[in-house]
Each structure stands twice: as structure tokens, then as C-alpha cells.
Design brief:
heterodimer; A: about 130 residues; mainly beta; B: about 400 residues; alpha/beta; nine-stranded mixed beta sheet; globular
């Protein structure tokens, strides 16, 4: 990892009434995913209505924070950054960034773990991943 | 009920401009509308159906109907599924015509992202916060290029696809663009040129990306009875299919596109198979877009797209499947950041025998046009048309 590389500061997310709980949990260091109380199937991003089944309620549960890189790309911008889909240990694939890493060493299938990065403005923590 | 044989494309026009600093977006829409109607031998007074998408300024068909002075409309449709909207509009126009809801439908696209300095592929767009995905994507710098790049990265991981194979798609497009006097990039490039161009978003290089251009295009669709009274060669809509694919609650699979479904539906309606197609217009926002769609449309097995596109197989007169003989979005034109209408226009040129002689496919009586709108890395629309010369 190059100490000289400036790290991109993410823009702040704009929560809506249905996601305030998600972003509040992020302030406590938790990544919430949706789980259907009847089927047990998990989804991401979490939403009050299960994207898979009409039956059952959605409860928001914390993910373990373990995952693997499903795919990624390094945007060769002024401040380069790595965008990725990380497959969580619980199943869902979530869009995220891989941070605190050597971009050239990133690989599909690589194990990563959850971290939080403060965003612009109010510093709302945003869930990201770093090599495990 | 099928739309097979129920509607014909009788007018097609692509604006020659690639940089329209002194024209408004509405003006470009109007110019392509008149161009397509002139091509068909019709006038604005004949139009009773109008189709446009998100690139039309103001309140879509209302603003444009007002500006154009269309006063006989009895059917409008502003379905917006991004860059493939206009292929879908052809299908929807055919449906409306088959049902008698309109008889002469006009479809327009125009825009000027080049003059407006839009960093189309590399600048993340904030979008509307009410859009449910924005807060889960925008903070991460989700743009267009890195979304398609993630598809390429996963495709390489699962199937061993290489950057050299992707580069062949650009090489083929450039071979065609050299003959198009309006194309933005007319220089023939090599695989090495593509690989040596700067990396934009790993593994996509600058030459894996389409151009950013101003301009537009328009189409006129009508029923066969009217088409036969006009002087242009008749291009009939033989089959159409559409599909939507998205992140599926976190189960997204980046290795395939909605073309898998849209294509199958279009082929079924048309009663033909991929091997019957003489020419294909394939949406080419990036090289990887073409490769994945070719697989999903059934031109080759899943995962074999890299081998299929290599060694000039997409070059007219050289390979088995001539594609994007106008140079496509990769070299010619990607007006309004939406390449759908130019895909139909070049297919119509091929079926009429009016493509540039150097790229005209011999006896081209059956063609396919396919588009993607939105982002393969998240959510997108897919639309396929099978067109035939009567």
C-alpha cells in the first residue's frame, strides 16, 4: 500500500425514511442487511419489502463483515479508487469500495473485511472493505 | 397476438453532426424528425404517433410535439429504458400500429453531451436521492465505465476472456468507420493500439470505450399497406423482444445481460435463429457490452464470446458476423450517450442495400438490432429487433 496515495473521500449518502436505520447503524459500526422472517433469505440493499417473496416481513440484521471480492475495477481518476461487488458471508453481493490496499494486488475471490470510511460533510460512515 | 409483419420502418435518418455547439437539443430532434420523414416521403402532417425518451427536453412528447407542431397525435409513448429506448419504441410502435392506435409513428433521439462537456463514462452521477439505489451506489463512485469494467473483470475471471479479444471488437468497428465520412474516429486501429491506450477503469482501456458525441437520429414506422405506397425499400419488423435485468436483491450476476431474454423473445416471434442473421447491429458502449450481448443473443456459446470476436470475425467481408458497419458507438457516433437509434438506422441501411459499398453485406435480407440501456453493472433494459427486407 502506498502511503502517498490520497484516499478518495466519498460523497455523503442521502438517507430516506426507510433507510435511516441503516445509516444510524453504520455510525455504530454495523452493516445491516435485510432478512425475510419467513423464508430467512437475505437481501441487499435492505428495503422494507422483500425483493424475493410476497410473504414474510423484513427484519434488518447485522452482517458479519466477512466477504470475498466478486468483481472490482480501479477507476484511474485523479484520485484512483477501487469499486467492487463484495459477496458477503451471508450471501448478498453489495456494491462498495476496497480501501487501504494495493490496487494492483486486488483479485477476484480475495477475502475482505468490513470497515467504515467517513464521508464528506457530516462524516456519515460508509461501509467499505479492506483485504482480510 | 404477434407483431410479426405488422409494421415497417419506412424512414431512417442519422444527423451528420458530431458536435452541435450552435444548435439546441430540441432543434436537433426537429432536424432528425424532418430528415426521417423526408426519407420516407412523408410530412409532419402525416404523423399520428410520436415516441421519445429521456433525451427529449422538457416534458417529453408534450414539449416536442409543441415544438415540432405535431397536431394530429393520437398515440404517444415516452418509455425510457436508457440507450435502448428507441429499439423498444420501434416494437411499441409496431404494437400500436397493429392495434390501430396510430398509423404513422415518428421516433426521435437527439442530444449534445459533447458540446456540454459531459464526462459520460467516468464522472459518477448523483441522480435523484429518491431513486432507491443512489445512496447505496453514488458514495462509491459508481460511474458508467467502472460498472462495465466490473462485468469485464468477472467475465475474464469466469471464462478466461482476454483484453486482446475485447480489443478485436474495437478493431472491427474501426475497419468499418474508415468508410464513414461522418464517423468521429476513422483511423483503423490494431489490437496493440487498444491495449496501449490509457487504462480508464481496469480492465477497460480508453479504446474499449465508445465516443462521446452530439447528434441524433429518427425513424418512421408505419403499417405495410402505407409502406407499399411509398418509394423506399420495405423493411419489416419480424420480431421484437424486451427485458429488464437488475441487481436482484444482491444476487446480481455480472456475466450475462438482459439480451438473453430479449433476444430469445425476438427470435421466437420472428421464427428465425441467430445463424440466419446476415448483419447485426450490437450496442457498443464498450467492447465488453458487445461480447456479452453476442453470447446472450445466441451467436455463440456463453463464455465463448472472446474466441468469437477475435481475428476479425465481426468485420464485414472478412468474418462470419458483420456488425456495426457504420463504425458503431465505438468509432462513429453515440448521440446523447444513447446508441439505440443508430443501431436500427444502420440495420435499415444494410437491409435497403444502402450501407457504404465497402461494408455492404451481400443479399442482406435479415438483420438484427440489439440495444442495452442503463448499466450492465447494475440495472438495464434490453431490446432486440429482428428486421427483414420484403
Amino acid at each position: 500500500m502506498s502511503e502517498q496515495t490520497p484516499q478518495r473521500v466519498p460523497p455523503s449518502p442521502t438517507p430516506d425514511p426507510s433507510t435511516r436505520g441503516f445509516w444510524e447503524a453504520a455510525k455504530q459500526g454495523k452493516l445491516l442487511i435485510g432478512r425475510n422472517t419467513k423464508t430467512g433469505k437475505t437481501h441487499y440493499p435492505p428495503r422494507p419489502i422483500c425483493p424475493f417473496d410476497d410473504e414474510g416481513e423484513v427484519e434488518y440484521v447485522p452482517a458479519s463483515g466477512d466477504g470475498t471480492i466478486y468483481s472490482f475495477s480501479v477507476m484511474r481518476a485523479k484520485i484512483p479508487y477501487a469499486i467492487a461487488y463484495v459477496e458477503l458471508a451471508e450471501g448478498p453481493r453489495m456494491m462498495t469500495n476496497i480501501v487501504n490496499c494495493d490496487f494492483n494486488a486486488l483479485r477476484v475471490g480475495q477475502k475482505v473485511k468490513l470497515t467504515f470510511v467517513p464521508s464528506e460533510g457530516d462524516g456519515q460512515p460508509v461501509p467499505m472493505f479492506t483485504p482480510a | 397476438m404477434s407483431i410479426r409483419g405488422k409494421a415497417c420502418i419506412v424512414g431512417a435518418y442519422e444527423h451528420p453532426t458530431r458536435k452541435a455547439e450552435d444548435k439546441s437539443t430540441a432543434q436537433l430532434h426537429a432536424e432528425v424528425a424532418l430528415g426521417a420523414l423526408r426519407d420516407a416521403g412523408l410530412t409532419r402532417k402525416d404523423v399520428d404517433g410520436y415516441f421519445c425518451a429521456g433525451d427529449a427536453p422538457g416534458m417529453g412528447p408534450l414539449s416536442m410535439a409543441d415544438y415540432l407542431g405535431l397536431d394530429r397525435l393520437r398515440h404517444v409513448d415516452s418509455t425510457d429504458v436508457g440507450g435502448c429506448s428507441y429499439l423498444l419504441h420501434v416494437a411499441h410502435a409496431a404494437e400500436a400500429i397493429a392495434l390501430g392506435k396510430c398509423s404513422i409513428a415518428l421516433i426521435t433521439l437527439a442530444g449534445r453531451p459533447r458540446s456540454e462537456g459531459v464526462a459520460t463514462g467516468t464522472a459518477p452521477r448523483a441522480g435523484n436521492p429518491a431513486q432507491p439505489d443512489v445512496q447505496f451506489e453514488y458514495p462509491y463512485g459508481a460511474a458508467i465505465a467502472n460498472m462495465y469494467a466490473m462485468c469485464a473483470m468477472r467475465h475474464m475471471y469466469e471464462y478466461g476472456t482476454t483484453s486482446e479479444q475485447l480489443a478485436w471488437i474495437k478493431v472491427a468497428a474501426s475497419h468499418h468507420a474508415q468508410h464513414n465520412e461522418h464517423a468521429m474516429l476513422r483511423k483503423v486501429v490494431t489490437v496493440e493500439d487498444v491495449l496501449n491506450s490509457p487504462m480508464v477503469a481496469d480492465p477497460l482501456h480508453r479504446l474499449d470505450c465508445c465516443v462521446i458525441s452530439d447528434g441524433g437520429g429518427a425513424l418512421v414506422v408505419t403499417k405495410p399497406e402505407i409502406a407499399r405506397t411509398l418509394k423506399r425499400p420495405i423493411v419489416t419488423v419480424r420480431g421484437a423482444g424486451e427485458a429488464v435485468k437488475h441487481t436482484m436483491g444482491g444476487t446480481i450476476d455480472l456475466t450475462y445481460t438482459g439480451a438473453r431474454f430479449a433476444g430469445a423473445r425476438a427470435f421466437e416471434e420472428a421464427g428465425v435463429k441467430p445463424a440466419d442473421i446476415k448483419y447485426a447491429s450490437i450496442y457498443d458502449s464498450f467492447t465488453i457490452t458487445v461480447l456479452m450481448q453476442l453470447e446472450d443473443l445466441g451467436f455463440c456459446e456463453k463464455g465463448q464470446g472472446g474466441k468469437f470476436v477475435a481475428d476479425g470475425n465481426l468485420i464485414s467481408g472478412v468474418g462470419k458476423l458483420p456488425f456495426n458497419t457504420d463504425g458503431g458507438g465505438l468509432c462513429n457516433n453515440h448521440p446523447a450517450n444513447r446508441g439505440g437509434i443508430t443501431k436500427v438506422i444502420e440495420a435499415v441501411r444494410q437491409l435497403r442495400g444502402e450501407a457504404h459499398p465497402a461494408v455492404q453485406v451481400k443479399n442482406c435480407d435479415l438483420a438484427l438490432a440489439h440495444g442495452t440501456g442503463g448499466s450492465l453493472g447494475t440495472r438495464h433494459g434490453s431490446a432486440t429487433l429482428v428486421l427483414e427486407r420484403e
